Amino acid sequence: QVHLVESGGGSVQSGGSLKLTCVASGVFYKICEMAWYRAAPGEERGMVASIDFGDGGTNYAYSVKGRFSVSHEDNDKKTLYLHMNNLKTEDTAVYYCSARTCGAVSFGNWGEGTQVTVSS
């Protein structure tokens, strides 16, 4: 079981920046992939960015390409970051951290989420 805790959310004006952090703990064999998802009010949760712990490959939602950057630390602490620049009001959402352990076919571990609010 992977326990995920997000931090770094807050309120910022349009054009500003925020950095989200997610720390993984618990008893698990190995994490192969981590991702950030977000859910805006009235919308379903969707993937924002993901990173493969093996080759470092990343994927981004089209709406955040060029503005957001995902990175990680794969040492004793499995830590995931999301650097968000040039934030827009439409980026307002609850951001969730997720992890896929090696052998799993989908993201089955989720954090509680952190609120990001972007005002004009």
Number of strands: 11
Number of helices: 0
Radius of gyration: 14 Å
Tell me roughly what share of residues is in helical segments: under 10%
Strand content: over 45%
Q: What is the H/E string?
A: EEEEEEEEEEE
- Mean of residue pLDDT values: 94
Largest sheet: 7 strands, mixed
- Which descriptor suits the 3D outline? globular
| Straight-line N-to-C gap | 40 Å
Q: Runs with pLDDT <50, length 5+? A: none
Going by helix content, strand content and strand pairing, the class is mainly beta
Structural summary, described in words:
By secondary structure, the protein is mostly beta strands. Helix content is 0%, strand content 57%. The strands form two sheets. Strands 2, 4, 5, 6, 9, 10 and 11 form a seven-stranded mixed β-sheet that branches. Strands 1-3-8-7 form a four-stranded antiparallel β-sheet, with no helix packed on it. A hairpin with a 3-residue loop joins β7 and β8.
Write the layout of secondary structure elements.
Elements: E1 2-7, E2 10-13, E3 18-26, E4 31-39, E5 46-52, E6 58-60, E7 68-74, E8 78-84, E9 93-101, E10 109-110, E11 114-119
Parallel strand pairs: 2-11
Antiparallel strand pairs: 1-3, 3-8, 4-5, 4-9, 5-6, 7-8, 9-10, 9-11
